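Forum: Protein Structure Q&A
Topic: Joint prediction for protein chains with partners

I've read a bunch of threads here and the consensus seems to be that you should model interacting components together rather than docking separate models afterwards. I'd like to see that in practice. Below is the full input, 977 residues plus whatever partners are listed. Could one of the regulars post the assembled result?
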Amino acid sequence: MAEHMTEHIALVVNGTPREGDVEPRRMLVQFLREDLELTGTHVGCDTSQCGACTVTIDGMAIKSCTMLAVQADGANVKTIEGMQAADGSLHALQEGFWAKHGLQCGFCTPGMIMAASDLLARNADPTDDEIRHAIEGNICRCTGYHNIVLAIREAASLVRAGASAPTPTSITA
Amino acid sequence: MATAVQDVLGTSVRRTEDPRFITGKGRYLDDIKLTGMAHLAILRSPYAHANIRSIDTTRAKTMPGVIAVIVGADIPYNPLPMAWPAGGASGLQNNVSTPRTLATDSVKWTGEGVTAVVAETPEQAIDALEAIDVDYEPLPAVVDAEKATQPGAVQLHENAPNNIVFDWTVGDKDGTEKALAEAEVVVRERLVNHRLIPNPMEVRGDIGWYNPGTDEYTVWMSSQTPHIQRLLLTAFVTGIPEHKVRCISPDVGGAFGTKIFCYADMALVMFASKLIGGGRPVKWVESRRESYGSTIHGRDHITYVEIAGRRDGTVTGVKVKTFANLGGRLSTIGPGIPTTLYGRVLSGCYKIPNVYAEVTGVYTNTTFVDAYRGAGRPEATYVIERAMDLFANEIGMDRAEVRRKNFIPKDAFPYDNPSGLGTAVNGEKIYVDSGDYEPAMDMALKTAGYADLEAKRAEAKTRGKLLGMGLSTYIEVCGVAPSKWIGAVGEGWGAAMWESSNVKVHLTGKVIVTMGTQPQGQGHETTYAQIVSHELGIPMDDIVIQHSDTQGTPFGYGSYGSRTSSVGSTAAIKATDKIKDKARRYAAHMLEASVDDIEVDGAEYRVKGSPDKKKTIQEIAFALDLGFSLPAGMEPYLDETAYYDTPNCTWPFGTHIAIVEVDEETGETDLVRYVAVDDVGKKINPMIVDGQLHGGIAQGVGQALWETAVYDDDGQLLSGSMMDYALPRASWLPSFELGETVTPSPVNPLGVKGVGEAGCIASTAAVANAVNDALSPLGIKHLDMPFTAQKVWHAIQATKGGRA
Ligand code: FES
Ligand code: FES
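Posted by a regular:
Agreed with the consensus. Here's the joint model:
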């Protein structure tokens, strides 16, 4: 039987140019997790409901289980692995989630952080309500969200106080 | 001089496990990639009830990448074990049907595994499933537990007439019936505690690896109980000797009970790895849709409750009849949940003299039901808390005052509740050990502004909203459990329930602690390190907690039943006690003093009266681990293991109050405030404890307002994907307001009680009582959960003579 047809794609992931040959049906999340071995991006559902797979493309949060890898050809993708600074220091959101106990099992956390990075890039001082709406595409079964809201608020205030701001359009981590 | 180590016990230190999770370096089951790994997919029954006539795998075998196709008849394993029979009056069941590794003759629910494909990639395995031809003989199905017991209902298993798994009773039948007959007031209601799909964010999966060189198996599993699974898979299922199997749980992405159990897929990946040969590991990971049929569901009770009492508010009797849906076959401890963990705590925190419950466990053509966060106790809390409200409303007395009047008084502990917590083999009972319920309730009432309820109601009414307040004054039994009780014939899990800990202080002063428990998000790596740091005076940074690998940790029963902080922590303390004892004896040797003269202060071991003569634990460990100079009879190394069996369970309690507003026009319910005052005893890490409460409350609220598993009459799961099953989202919930009272548990040295389930046990009843309170001015006496806008709207319309 003939091999499946594959497509060649080239994109930037966490500031590094990456290439690959993918089946047309391959989802971006599989390309990230299996081909690039960036397993910080998780899969929690098969109906685009949970947000565990959230990454950003040019700063905008998207569900990588819903996008074909071929659609990401030429895109600038950021995953949880790209959030730390080059010197290893934590992003304000990572700091916020750690300080405010914004995670328990940690499975939803990468997606939450990526969704929140989109919010903070647009809104430096979100209200609790704005935070709750911004992450409503991301399900957390552990925390009841209370501490996630506190974590994102904490991150926002860290950013405003001069910690490294989320840089939605920059390709460097 | 040793620098004083900051005592971290009882403080909200940041979690040590978090750096890996916030940077995307957690390692969950599906993140594991092994050399040569093949992938397995399972073909599941599309029918809820059918006989399997034949299975044709010819086409599938020729599909690209396919390595093997497996049917049930190929597998010589036994069916899965059922480890917690209901026992009691129903006797030991002889009608147990549990899943086989793959079904052979028949299927009993949509989702039961029938055939498996092993292929080079997951996609190839899934593609090949479509080329398998199974010839089914479809049979009629039954999904409702009460209907399934009626004469003429579809029969699932020949040896279970009327689909009854057990008829279990507890309490004093005659006394309770007499109390009902003589009561001034009796209120009766039918309560449905609907079925839930637990939905941890990480689905389940396993990797099986047969090593042909050593004839040994390693199984990675997303499990709360790797030690138990090794035991069950070897002693009961596969026949492979226990010492030939190693089970490992990597990071587990939430569990809530679902990952306690022995599942067919665990045995299947073991079988498949050996079958395909070459030492190739085989991985299976369920999809979310698949998990709705392959991982347990929770709750699903139909209950008839009768509550009797006097017009002064005294409750004199409670009688309960419950149909508990257990699914098409039994899960590992399915029958134990609606019996021991439900029937025996039905009287809640109230001193009710007469309690009697009958529970009928029932087979239906649905996914198996087992322990989901709270497991039996949320169902019991729901029944008694709804019943208290119904009773209060009937006699026209304030709901809080009725509760106050019936609370077990604080001087009545230890309290032997009338539904009995089981007679252990030696005749000993489990007592409710401690409690002081009024202060928690008063604090909650005050915080929630309960006294102003009617004014709030009137104000809301001007906005077209029906406001309601609901109370839930709960207790839970957790910290399971004394082995002699849990092992009582026919009543307990067919095993013990102690815990274990090994503590090693290495030559460099670094400490490795291995535990028999298994975390799924609760922060064990942090809290155990806080305890060990406190006990040994060694900084937390020098302590690592290891767990979840049968090869590297002492046997333990795992984490569930809110048992880790009370039973697991005490094991760790017992191990550090042994360490300290040996260190003290060795310090005496080093300092040429008598043991009795050595006093311990944190990390320092000093000679009484000569403060300069001292050694630190690090110095002691260095010398003792080298072993150059040992006193007679002393072994080298600071390495101690403790196995700890708890003398009793623990009894958290509290009062939760929900405030809801129902839109009179649309029927939409909004949870506007939630106040929780919990008494979970002392807290090892308050931040983590509060996090557990928040998460638990959200899950319980989810049941009351949105979540429900719905089957049609043919046994098709209509809420069969995350698109159809409504999990709580951030924008649907308010931030919960937490308060506390602290009554230390007398059972363990830390005074802790356990907190994993408390929020979930209390909150469903609080919200249900709130919505029913909101609807009560319309003359609605009781409405079942979940309070979807559609259901509430219909109920409101019916009171107005409109469409019902
Ligand atoms: S995996 Fe659930 S939304 Fe993408
Ligand atoms: S932390 Fe477990 S799902 Fe969010």
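Residues A 103-109, 140-143; B 201, 254, 521 surround FE2/S2 (inorganic) cluster (ligand 2) (CB under 6 Å).
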